[in-house]
Amino acid sequence: MTSASSLEEAAKGQKSSRSKTETAKVVGGLVAKRARDLGVKEVTFDRGGFRYHGRVQALADAAREGGLRF
Questions:
Q1: Pick from 6, 5, 66, 4: nearest CA to 14
Q2: Helix/strand/coil (H, E, C) string of the chain?
Q3: How would you write the pLDDT of the chain (70 residues) with one tens digit per residue?
Q4: What is the pLDDT of residue 14?
């Protein structure tokens, strides 16, 4: 099991100059990298009732680009 947050040092970077959507992309990439490091290739994505657009979509797309299958 792994997780990532926009509050971590790896995701902060130049946070003040990033939009919330760009930050979600960074977090999605971190999740994908950590999952790959653990040998996870396929995941289930639970939107928690949120519509699939904006930040939610950006995070999911970045995770897919990072190699995860949904």
A1: 6
A2: CCCCCCCCHHHHCCHHHCCHHHHHHHHHHHHHHHHHHCCCCECCCCCCCCCCCHHHHHHHHHHHHCCCEC
A3: 899 999 988 887 766 678 899 999 999 999 999 999 999 999 998 888 888 999 999 999 999 999 999 9
A4: 66
Query: How many Å apart are CA 56 and CA 53, to the nearest integer?
Result: 6
CA count, 13 A, side-chain hemisphere, 8: 12
Residue 2 tokens read as 């792994």
Taking the C-alpha atoms of residue 35 and residue 54, their distance in angstroms, rounded to an integer, is 23
- Distance, in Å, from the CA atom of 26 to the CA atom of 9, rounded to the nearest integer, reads 12
pTM of the model: 0.86
Distance in angstroms (rounded) separating the CA atoms of residues 4 and 30: 6
